TrEMBL record:
One of its GO terms (molecular function) is efflux transmembrane transporter activity. Residues 29-66 form a coiled coil. GO terms for cellular component: cell outer membrane; efflux pump complex. It is found in: Cell outer membrane. Keywords: Cell outer membrane, Coiled coil, Membrane, Signal, Transmembrane, Transmembrane beta strand, Transport. Belongs to the outer membrane factor (OMF) (TC 1.B.17) family. This is TolC family protein. It comes from the Bacteria. The lineage of its organism: Bacteria, Candidatus Eiseniibacteriota. The keyword Ribosomal protein does not apply. Residues 1-28 form the signal peptide.
């Protein structure tokens, strides 16, 4: 009986495995940027940061409003009892004596002037004319708002990068699963061939056992890759705010948009200009500078102008002559408070120096982060051609060994070794490819490249 020739099945499996089961294309609504926007909309931590930013903006509006006039209505209606002060008891006897001296009744002797009066209603318009504390307060609030805006943007950029990396981990696990599926075709055919040879007295039992062991190893690795894909999909669904077991469509490789497309100097310049951590640090410096101004304002006077109009008495009367008007200028100037202002000024100055130190440290970290990310992406890109050449060579070696094995010129061990080398080369190609894409996603975050936060700026 002739030697079984598994060439047709082996070469068909070769073509399937060499394709690495690339996704055919992306759904119109399922792009990587769309996933990022979905994750940003669903993330609760980012939602909390945005709410805190709203609070900071409202605080700035409140600080600005302090410069404007205030209009206040005050009304009082009192019920009196007990030993209240009545100035009529003092004035009435004096008026009676005057009437006796003048021989007339020009002076009333039945006055009732009780204090406080039964009612008092007034409207006050007040306007700060000079108060350095208001300027300092607005500077502090503006700095805190800018710092929170930077913190919100940094959180959004981090979430975007985590979403991209999460999808890449899912896609890599899918590729590994598909690779092992294709490899199973090869090892299944090898087991079939060895069992046929054993039945025809052309092979020994250990060769069959070796082929079966090789298949079990591939099956075990395939199961592990499938578990990784499922776990990555579930984690990504949680980030997207979807049901944990929701399906996730693969995205075509050419639609990922993750490439090293800028030189190092451009990446560094983008990081210096756009990284939100620097906005946050500058906001902290501005707030600390405002605290210094607030401490210095304690040495200066404040001046407020106020105008009061109202009525008061035993009953409400709004006729002409029954109201009163008061215009006031109120000056306040604390000349000595036991050294409190100097202590506050020294503390604020130390806070400003600390904020500037933190800003310098943030700038250094951002530049190092962007530089490291760019270098990692560059190194990962350089590894791509070698990984691809290794895969092509391993595939060609497998094809040659498979042909030799089909005519009995190569042993089973040579065939299995060629298959293992091909599988390892394919695994290396997958890991190298997705490592490069993850490095590019990290570079988008570290360098704050324009495409690194698609759709995230809205709402900040």
């Amino acid at each position: 009986m002739k030697h079984p020739r598994p060439m047709h099945a082996l070469l068909a499996a070769t073509l399937a495995a060499s394709a690495l089961v690339a996704p055919a294309g992306a759904r119109a609504a399922e792009t990587l940027d769309a996933l990022v926007r979905e994750a940003l909309a669903a993330n609760r931590d980012l939602r909390a940061e945005r709410l805190q930013l709203e609070q900071a903006r409202a605080a700035v509006s409140e600080a600005t409003a302090l410069f404007l006039p205030t209009v206040t209505v005050n009304a009082r209606l009192s019920g009196r009892s007990g030993n209240v002060v009545d100035f009529g008891k003092l004035i009435n006897p004096a008026f009676a004596a005057l009437n006796q001296l003048t021989g007339g009744g020009a002076f009333p002797t039945d006055l009732r002037l009780v204090q406080p009066s039964k009612q008092e209603t007034s409207v006050r318009v007040a306007m700060p004319l000079l108060d350095a504390r208001l300027v300092a307060n607005r500077r502090i609030r503006s700095g805190l708002r800018d710092a929170q805006r930077g913190a919100t943007g940094a959180a959004a950029r981090r979430i975007a990068a985590e979403t991209r990396t999460g999808y890449l981990q899912y896609a890599r696990a899918l590729r590994l699963t598909a690779l092992y599926d294709s490899t199973l075709v090869l090892v299944d055919e090898a087991v079939r061939v060895q069992e046929s040879l054993l039945a025809n007295g052309k092979a020994t039992p250990d060769q069959v056992l070796r082929a079966r062991a090789d298949r079990s190893d591939v099956a075990q690795r395939r199961a592990a890759a499938a578990r990784l894909a499922d776990a990555a999909r579930q984690l990504l669904n949680v980030r997207l705010g979807r049901a944990v077991d929701a399906p996730l469509e693969p995205i075509a490789d050419d639609a990922l948009g993750l490439e090293l497309r800028v030189p190092l100097d451009e990446a560094l310049a983008s990081a210096r200009e756009h990284r939100e951590e620097l906005v946050q640090a500058r906001g902290g410096v501005r707030a600390a500078g405002g605290a210094v101004s607030l401490a210095n304002a304690g040495y200066l006077p404040s001046l407020v102008a106020a105008v009061d109009w109202g009525v008061q008495g035993e009953e409400y009367r709004f006729e002409r002559g029954e109201d009163y008007r008061v215009a006031s200028l109120a000056l306040q100037w604390t000349l000595f408070n036991g050294g409190q202002r100097e202590a506050q000024r020294q503390a604020a100055a130390a806070g400003l120096r600390r904020a500037r130190t933190l800003a310098d440290e943030a700038a250094a970290k951002v530049e190092l982060d962007a530089r490291t990310a760019w270098q990692a992406a560059a190194v990962a890109r350089e590894a791509l051609p070698a990984a691809h050449e290794r895969l092509v060579a391993a595939r060609r070696t497998w094809e040659l060994v498979a042909k030799r094995h089909a005519i009995g010129a190569a042993s089973l061990l040579e065939l299995l070794d060629a298959r293992t080398n091909w599988t390892n080369a394919a695994l290396n190609d997958v890991f190298t490819t997705y490592d490069y894409r993850e490095r590019c996603a990290e570079l988008d975050r570290a360098a704050a490249l324009p495409s690194g936060l698609a759709g995230a700026e809205g709402g900040l």
